[in-house]
Amino acid sequence: MSASTLPLHVEPFKWADRGAEVDVTVPLKSFTRLLGGALSDEGVVTVRCDFARDAQGRAWLSGTAAATVSLTCQRCLEAVQVELDADFRLALVGDEAEAEALPEEDDYLVVGDDSLVLQEVVEDELILALPLAPTHDDCELAYVSDAAESASEEKRENPFQVLAAIKAQDQDK
What we know:
The protein is an alpha+beta fold and about 170 residues long. The protein has helices at about 10-20, 95-100, 120-130, 145-155, 160-170; strands at about 20-25, 45-55, 60-70, 80-95, 105-110. It has one domain. The chain has five helices and five strands. It is elongated, with a radius of gyration of 28 Å.
């Protein structure tokens, strides 16, 4: 399947039976939750998803999603372009009981009503790929001003000078 939108509702178990693939480029602006802290909605998200069944008959959704998002640098407060790359492999299960039978290292997705909104799954994976604090590789802190820099460079008064002055007064008496 190749288009400019992700299928709205997917029947993942049927798609896994057929070995369906999704390979699309979607406008970034359609991922509203991902853009919650973004500075711009310009760009695209490249998505590739494969539905399959393994030797045990378990349904899987594997895929990749890639996008470049404009976020605020947490150091200089200017725009920074962050490249997001999400690789995922999710076991598709009908309920939590099935999920308990999976090995602990496997990620899973509970699909209770046999319907899956693929865009939400991809968006969740991209949100998980967001950095906690986006920053440029090299930039200055925005709140450091010239006055703050000069204040830190000023020579601090030695607190023991006061004691030395008191001691000198006592010796003069």
